[in-house]
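Budget justification aside, the reviewers requested a transparent look at the raw inputs and outputs of the sequence design task funded under Objective 1. We therefore reproduce one unedited record. The lines immediately below are the C-alpha cells for a 448-residue chain.
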C-alpha cells in the first residue's frame, strides 16, 4: 500500500463519527473514516427491524452515499476495515486488512457492545443481542420461525415453549422490544394461522432492578409497566437472571421454558482502552477531559459510548445518540479551529433536549427537563424526533409511510423469513428429540 500522509482519522461511523466526518467535510479538512461496515445504522429503531415493522434499508444508509468522497473538494477516504491496534508513539493505526495509517488527530467513536456480565460464552449463544442489522434479522427470523414451527407441531408443551418470548433488560431497548413483540403477536399475526392463536403468545420482560426505565423518573417507569401489562406483557422486576440455557431462563425463584430469549441488558465499550493502553471505567469506557481528549494526548479524542465524561453536575453523560452527535461535532470543530489557528472552543457542554422511549401503539414516555410526558403526545414526539434523526430523505419518507400504514391497518410489512432457515429452526427446536425430551426438561428445571 502506498505511503499515506498524516491526516485526521475517524474510527466508527455511528452517530458521533458520522457527525464529525460531515463537519470536517463541510470545512474542507481531509480525513480518513474507518468502519467495519459500509453503512451508518440508526440503532434506536433496530428493534423495529427485529419485530418485522421496518426493513433494514429503512434505518441504514451507505456511508459513501452520505459523504460522497468522489465529489468532495477535500480529500476524503473511506475504508471498510477494522482497527486492531493504535501506536500512540508512532501515531499510526493498524487494521485487520493490514493497513498502517498515520494520523495527525484521531477521533475514536467506536460505540459499545452488549455485556453479559461475564457470561458471554454461556449465554450469548442462547440469548442474541440487538446491535447490528445482522442481529435484527437473526431475531426476526427466530421470532417468525417460532410461530411457523408452533403451527406445525402437535405437542402442546413444545408449542407453548415456542410461543414464549423472554426479553431481558428493562431499559428503553428492552421495553420497546417487548412491546413490539406483544403487538406483533396480538395484532399483526392474529389472523395469519389456522392451528395456533398468536394472541396466546407469552411475552415476558425481565429486569434485575425493581423498576423499568431506571434512568427515568419512577413515575414514568410505573406508567411503562402498567401500559406493557395492559398490552399483555408479563413484567418481572427485581429478579436477576441466574442462567440461560437451550431450555430457557432461570431466575432465582422460577424458571421460564422458552426457545426465544433476547438480550437487552448491559453494555460495554469497545476495546478502545486496550488499543490506547490506558485505564478504563468498569464498563470499558475511556475517561477523557472536558475537551473530550485524553489527558496526556491532545491529538486523540474519544467520544460517544466509548468515552466517559461528566456533565456540569458531575454525573456521567448517558450513552445516547444526541450525546454522541454533539460530541462528534465538538471534536471536529476543535480540529478545524486548530487547523485555522483559531482559539479552541470552550469545554464541551451537552445540551439535553430530553429523553424518550416508546412502549407501543400510541404510548410512550418522555422527560424534557422537569417536564414529564406520557401517552399519545409523547408517542407523537418520539416519532417526530426519530424521523428527524434518520439520515436521508428516503429513509425518513419510508419510515413515516410504514408507520402510517401500520397505524391504519395494524400490519407489519417486513414479515419475511430469510437466511439460513435450517440453522434457525435448529436453534428453536432440535426436531423430534425436543419433543421426546421435553417432559424430562420440564422436570429438571422444576427440580432446580
Amino acid at each position: 500500500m502506498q505511503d499515506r500522509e498524516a491526516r485526521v482519522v475517524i474510527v466508527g461511523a455511528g452517530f458521533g463519527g458520522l457527525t464529525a466526518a460531515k463537519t470536517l467535510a463541510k470545512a474542507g479538512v481531509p480525513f480518513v473514516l474507518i468502519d467495519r461496515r459500509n453503512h451508518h445504522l440508526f440503532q434506536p429503531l433496530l428493534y423495529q427491524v427485529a419485530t418485522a415493522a421496518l426493513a433494514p434499508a429503512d434505518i441504514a444508509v451507505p456511508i459513501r452515499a452520505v459523504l460522497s468522497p468522489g465529489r468532495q473538494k477535500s480529500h476524503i477516504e473511506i475504508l471498510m476495515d477494522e482497527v486492531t491496534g493504535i501506536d500512540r508513539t508512532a501515531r499510526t493505526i493498524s487494521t485487520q486488512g493490514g493497513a498502517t495509517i498515520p494520523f495527525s488527530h484521531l477521533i475514536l467513536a467506536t460505540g459499545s457492545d452488549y455485556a453479559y456480565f461475564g457470561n458471554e460464552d454461556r449465554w450469548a449463544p442462547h440469548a442474541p443481542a440487538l446491535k447490528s442489522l445482522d442481529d435484527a434479522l437473526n431475531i426476526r427470523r427466530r421470532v417468525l420461525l417460532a410461530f411457523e414451527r408452533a403451527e406445525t407441531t402437535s405437542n402442546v408443551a413444545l408449542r407453548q415453549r415456542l410461543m414464549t418470548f423472554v426479553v431481558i433488560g428493562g431499559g428503553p431497548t428492552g421495553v420497546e422490544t417487548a412491546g413490539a413483540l406483544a403487538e406483533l403477536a396480538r395484532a399483526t399475526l392474529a389472523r395469519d394461522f389456522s392451528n395456533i392463536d398468536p394472541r396466546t403468545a407469552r411475552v415476558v420482560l425481565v429486569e434485575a432492578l425493581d423498576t423499568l426505565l431506571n434512568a427515568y423518573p419512577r413515575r414514568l417507569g410505573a406508567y411503562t409497566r402498567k401500559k406493557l401489562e395492559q398490552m399483555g406483557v408479563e413484567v418481572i422486576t427485581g429478579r436477576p437472571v441466574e442462567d440461560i440455557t437451550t431450555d430457557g431462563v432461570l431466575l432465582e425463584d422460577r424458571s421460564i421454558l422458552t426457545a426465544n430469549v433476547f438480550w437487552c441488558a448491559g453494555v460495554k465499550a469497545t476495546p478502545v482502552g486496550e488499543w490506547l493502553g490506558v485505564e478504563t471505567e468498569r464498563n470499558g469506557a475511556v475517561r477523557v477531559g472536558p475537551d473530550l481528549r485524553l489527558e496526556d494526548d491532545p491529538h486523540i479524542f474519544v467520544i460517544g459510548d466509548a468515552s466517559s465524561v461528566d456533565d456540569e453536575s458531575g454525573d456521567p453523560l448517558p450513552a445516547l445518540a444526541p450525546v454522541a452527535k454533539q460530541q462528534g461535532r465538538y471534536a471536529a470543530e476543535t480540529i478545524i479551529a486548530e487547523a485555522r489557528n483559531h482559539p479552541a472552543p470552550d469545554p464541551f457542554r451537552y445540551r439535553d433536549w430530553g429523553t424518550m422511549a416508546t412502549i407501543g401503539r400510541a404510548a410512550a414516555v418522555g422527560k424534557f427537563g422537569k417536564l414529564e410526558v406520557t401517552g399519545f403526545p409523547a408517542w407523537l414526539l418520539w416519532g417526530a424526533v426519530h424521523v428527524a434523526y434518520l439520515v436521508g430523505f428516503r429513509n425518513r419518507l419510508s419510515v413515516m409511510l410504514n408507520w402510517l400504514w401500520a397505524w391504519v391497518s395494524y400490519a407489519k410489512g417486513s414479515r419475511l423469513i430469510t437466511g439460513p432457515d435450517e440453522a434457525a429452526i435448529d436453534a428453536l427446536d432440535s426436531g423430534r428429540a425436543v419433543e421426546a425430551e421435553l417432559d424430562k426438561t420440564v422436570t429438571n428445571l422444576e427440580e432446580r
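The two ends are 59 Å apart (CA to CA). Confidence is low (pLDDT under 50) at residues 429-439. Computational costs for records of this kind are itemized in the attached budget.
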